[in-house]
Design a protein that fits this description.
492 residues; alpha/beta; D-Maltodextrin-Binding Protein, domain 2; 2 domains; four-stranded mixed sheet; 19 helices
Length: 492
């Protein structure tokens, strides 16, 4: 993943341009953020299917409401605009949702799709120019963090007509990524990307049966699905199938993934890189024996190349040097576990996979840990509004309505139809989805790239570098400086 530097120096003219937009946002403070709640919610659980009737109608005279977003990822659904019904349940639900919004407010919903990583620069240029080219932006949370530090985004709790306490907004995002009571970007049901970017563990059910291994589903339900048990099952499944004494593409592995799995497993131990104090400001959470123990545990669990195959670390898992063949090890039945984001289920290779597979949450640190914790990828898409929005009330009303209608009209298709009946293979996986969704976390340190610590830890994990205590001592001042910069940007 590419991370952007957050400490940009704003030129004087730009400060003058942003002043008016920022001034309009004064008012609500931290008490306007959503109440703390589990992120899990049943899509469409509202009693009134006509939920749009609860949102005021207004005639905007054919106004073109313009989204800006990056092109779709291979593994995740990020569509907002759908041109026509095609028979694909999720896309058809989006199409019907959009038509309802357009009719209710007499608007036309459109989007501009940017290729590559230039969405945020396109958005920045528009705000600086004051051309009001876009009403809303979807971009990577890492990019949105950079934009927010430059006074380019509107403080969402201050946007008229947006109610972040409603179930169609992800309260975990608001809780984890706000700073000083301000929240400049959020995730919610109007875009499915954050759901597809939730980390999961898949397992080969045939291998569990053939090797007479313990049932992972039962372990999860009993609360004994821990790193120790995960390592035990990996060890039992791994084998040098071709007998050459060297790990390679043709062997069988206990675990397959890529570099992002390291921090997702660390966060799964109920360990964050940063926590918040009573003033909603980030505080380092790494200076503890508990953190060091969890880091070393994860590192040791994933370090052995005879048991684990990691895309960036182990080039020999590429077939004939083709790096995009690494996932075939799981698709072809030569890995017991495969960690990826939920959207991987949409890939054709997963849908066509002959081996039976199931879904699991990331394992806990130990049995004393109360809950399983799932992490949302730090490059997931989040929603933001230009700081100099021409009509914040109109923007808020349309986005709130779009999100509410997504909650009752799109999310049931996503979970009930696509995930539960098309892409999963058994009822147990459906139960696991509820556990995976119950507690989701966004890591503030990764999203804001505070002190580059997330990158550093990933590199250390990949090398099985366990000198975590000395590393933390070395970077302490760097991290504190990064915290100071982002706090200053949010509170000035």
């Amino acid at each position: 993943m590419k991370f952007k530097n957050l400490a940009y120096i704003l030129i004087f003219a730009f400060l003058l341009l942003c002043f008016a937009g920022c001034a309009k946002q004064e008012g609500k403070t931290s008490d306007a953020l959503p109440a703390d709640a589990d992120s899990a919610k049943t899509p469409g659980e509202a009693t009134d299917a006509n939920i749009l009737d609860t949102i005021p109608s207004e005639n905007f005279g054919g106004y073109e409401f313009r989204f800006l977003k990056p092109e779709n990822d291979l593994w995740a659904t990020s569509d907002v605009i759908v041109e026509e019904e095609t028979g694909e349940a999720i896309l058809d639900a989006m199409y019907r949702r959009n038509k309802k919004i357009e009719e209710k407010f007499n608007v036309q919903l459109t989007e501009t799709v940017i290729k590559g990583w230039d969405t945020s620069s396109t958005f920045k240029n528009s705000v600086v120019a004051g051309d009001y080219a876009y009403d809303a932006i979807y971009d990577r949370t890492t990019n949105m963090a950079a934009l927010s530090s430059q006074a380019l985004l509107y403080n969402l709790p201050n946007v008229p007509n947006i109610d972040l306490d409603k179930p169609w907004w992800d309260s975990s995002c608001a809780k984890d990524l706000s700073i000083a009571g301000r929240l400049y970007f959020a995730t919610g049901d109007a875009n499915l990307h954050y759901n597809d970017d939730t980390w999961i563990v898949m397992f080969n059910k045939n291998m569990v049966r053939d090797l007479a291994l313990e049932n992972p589903y039962q372990l999860v339900l009993e609360g004994t699905w821990t790193l120790d048990k995960f390592y035990e099952l990996m060890s039992a499944a791994s084998a040098d199938l071709n007998g050459n004494g060297t790990p390679d593409f043709d062997d069988r592995y206990g675990f397959l993934s890529h570099n992002s799995t390291y921090t997702s497993f660390l966060f799964g131990t109920d360990q964050s890189l940063f926590v918040k104090n009573s003033e909603d400001l980030p505080v380092i959470a790494l200076n503890s024996t508990d953190f060091a123990s969890k880091y070393i545990k994860v590192s040791e669990t994933l370090a052995d190349p005879r048991l684990t195959a990691i895309w960036q670390r182990d080039k020999y898992i590429f077939l004939n040097g083709d790096e995009w063949t690494w996932q075939n090890i799981f698709f072809e039945g030569r890995a017991l576990f495969f960690a990826e984001v939920l959207g991987t289920l949409h890939l054709s290779n997963m849908r066509n996979m002959q081996e039976n597979f199931g879904l699991l949450p990331v394992p806990k640190y130990d049995t004393a840990q109360k809950e399983y914790i799932s992490t949302v990828l730090d490059s997931t898409l989040a929603l933001g509004i230009p700081s100099n929005a021409e009509n914040p009330g109109r923007t808020g009303l349309i986005l709130e309505a779009l999100s509410a209608e997504s909650y009752v009209g799109v999310m049931p298709e996503y979970y009930d139809v696509a995930l539960q009946y098309k892409l999963t293979r058994d009822e147990d996986s459906v139960a696991m989805l509820d556990i995976i969704r119950k507690i989701r976390r966004y890591d503030l340190g990764s999203v804001y790239n505070l002190g580059s610590i997330a990158n550093d830890l990933t590199n250390m994990f990949a090398k099985n570098d366990q000198n975590i205590v000395s590393y933390l001592e070395k970077v302490q001042s760097r991290i504190e400086k990064a915290i100071g910069l982002i706090v200053e940007a949010y509170t000035k």
